[in-house]
Amino acid sequence: MQIISISSLKGGVGKTSVTLGLASAARAQGIPTLVVDMDPHADATTGLGVKQGQHTDDIGTLLERPRRISLADHVTPSGWPDLAPGAAEAGIPGNGKALDVVRGSSRTSLYERPTTRPRELRRLATLLESVTRYALVLIDCPPALNGVTRMAWAASTDVLLVAEPSLFSVAGTERTLRALDLFRSEYAQGVRTTGVVANRVRPASTEHQFRLGEMERMYGDRLLPVAIPEQSNWQQVQGAAWPIHAWPGETAAQSALLFEELLAALHRPQGRRSQRRH
Ligand SMILES: Nc1ncnc2c1ncn2[C@@H]1O[C@H](COP(=O)(O)OP(=O)(O)OP(=O)(O)O)[C@@H](O)[C@H]1O
Ligand SMILES: [Mg+2]
Predict the structure, then answer these.
(1) Rounded CA gap, 17 and 170, in Å?
(2) Distance between Cα 15 and ligand 2 center (Å)
(3) Is the distance from the beta carbon of residue 259 to the nearest atom of ligand 1 less than 6 Å?
(4) Which chain residues have CB less than 5 Å from ligand 2, an ion?
């Protein structure tokens, strides 16, 4: 099972958007996927259209007693619509069967302290040990490097950092990479790869081109070959709680393709080992 944390020290750079884009791509390809919403704001849960009044426990509650829980009993199907009407009944992959969510909640903020206690850091890893039906787990992290993100990293096989091509975001990503390298050697040895994806790129902006060049120099082959452009309909798609793969129009289709490319750059089907070890 591949477990990818989507992180950044800086807020608002697109962690949740990238998580949702990857979830949409995985669903379209029929990859059984679980999204764990670790952000106390629970934006990914909202964006995945999870219905109110679920009888499952949220992640904040589950983390309180991870050893006594079977996580499979607390996943909720995403509320995203089918890619094509009637497709689920026809058994076409990627139509609602393959994408589940562990709901986020403000309770996770209880773990937002700078802890390094191994017992605390292992809580999410312990929870995830109890599920076997997924090939991919995507963890949406809050914009901080405290207990919640550390717990996510300690449970992960890969960490994806999201950065905007702006001065502050590039500097923040550099700090996050250093913090991750340090943390990894002590507490998160399971993390095999770390990559950086540029988001909200405006190809016509000279400042963005400059920053992208800087990112290439700073991060080397950690900078993933796929950059996500600034998209005008993004908020509309997220506001409707729809997957990008179901949204009509050419722009959405291009974004959908980009997220498939990003997923291909990250996803290792079971049995294939990573070539890159950073
Ligand atoms: N590529 C993009 N094009 C246009 N808008 C985008 C893009 N990526 C993100 N956004 C918008 O930017 C805002 C912040 O994005 P998002 O919530 O994904 O960031 P985040 O890093 O998860 O934020 P937080 O740190 O608060 O969790 C949202 O309104 C989102 O719709
Ligand atoms: Mg977010």
Answers:
(1) 18
(2) 5
(3) no
(4) 15-16, 43
Q: Tens digit of pLDDT for each residue in 76-88?
A: 999 998 766 555 5
Structure tokens at 9: 């020290």
The C-alpha atoms of residue 153 and residue 190 are separated, in whole angstroms, by 9
The sign of the torsion formed by the CA atoms of 194, 66, 60, 137 equals positive
Residue 70's Cβ-count burial label (10 Å; 0-12, 13-18, 19+) is: exposed
Q: Are strands 76-77 and 99-102 parallel, antiparallel or unpaired?
A: antiparallel
Q: Which residue has the tokens 């289709």?
A: 253
Angle, CA of 71, 103 and 43, to the nearest 5°? 150
Q: Helix (H, G, I), strand (E, B), or coil: what is residue 218?
A: helix
Q: How far apart are CA 22 and CA 33, in angstroms?
A: 10
Say if residue 59's pLDDT is above 90: yes
| 3-state DSSP helix/strand/coil % of the chain, to nearest 5 | 45, 15, 45
For CA atoms 94, 96, 101, 106, the dihedral sign is positive
Neighbouring CB atoms inside 10 A of 140's CB total 30
Separation of CA 143 and ligand 2 centre (Å): 7
Ligand 1 contact via 239 beta carbon (within 6 Å): no
Q: Give 107-150 pLDDT, tens digit per residue.
A: 999 998 887 788 889 999 999 998 999 999 999 999 998 999 99
- Domain 2-266 bears CATH identifier 3.10.580.10: no
Question: Tell me: the pLDDT tens digits for 181-218?
Answer: 999 988 988 999 889 999 999 999 999 999 999 999 99
